[in-house]
Amino acid sequence: MTTVFKNFSDNNQAVEKIKKDNTSGAKELDGLTRKAILSFISTPHSNETLLKFLTKLRSAKPEMAPIMNTVDKVVKIAKTSKDIKLRNEKIKKMISTSDIDWNILIKNITKAMKGKTVVLTYSYSSTIIEVLIRLRQKELTVFVPESRPVNEGRNTAIKLKKAGLKIKFITDTGISKFIKDVDVVLLGADSFSRDFVINKIGTLAIALLAREYKIPCYVVCGKNKFSNISLSETAKNPKEIWDVKGIEVKNFYFEEVPVKYFTGIITD
Q: What mean pLDDT is predicted for residues 69-74?
């Protein structure tokens, strides 16, 4: 990883960029977090200012476990390493280490995908995209809902199309019509615990539909998504849905879904 990131010269700007990004997946936002940390430690600073910066990063996306886990690891290093040079080397080493063991993850997902050629996914998950590309099954057809209100499903569809997969793009409300046509549902996650998965709102409805039609429904993510954090989301900009006076518009991005509603969680 390069340690110079021109887009992150302003530390507050880095935090705001992560906070306002409503289309990238948790893995990508964790990547931006790691770049922001590397940029910060490449400039003169004290341990105290680093810890304050890490607190800001942690609050940028409190529902996303990878960011929480990355920041917590750096905090631990900062609190236990008195030598700044040695501390920075430890941070760089930690950040440059891959957060997913792809060999294990692909091996595990391959078992679940045996005989499955039609997939439905949802929202935007860089892990799901990478998994589908690495499976190298050209016969795969992927149903991709638009994922309103910010339509991040379009990015998912475009990336998978470029990789040679056959895409069927549908509306969110069309999921109930097409769910019976798929072999398996693969969903990403912003975090998961022993009891709940936190993911894009609408995930519960998909899991329940898959259960009704007896279609396997898996959450696929790296172990770095494991966390005991609970969802405490604040309402997003209502104008993303409708700019209207006199009507309360409720815009939330995430929900907690009980693990029991999924066939399983596939991880590394």
A: 92
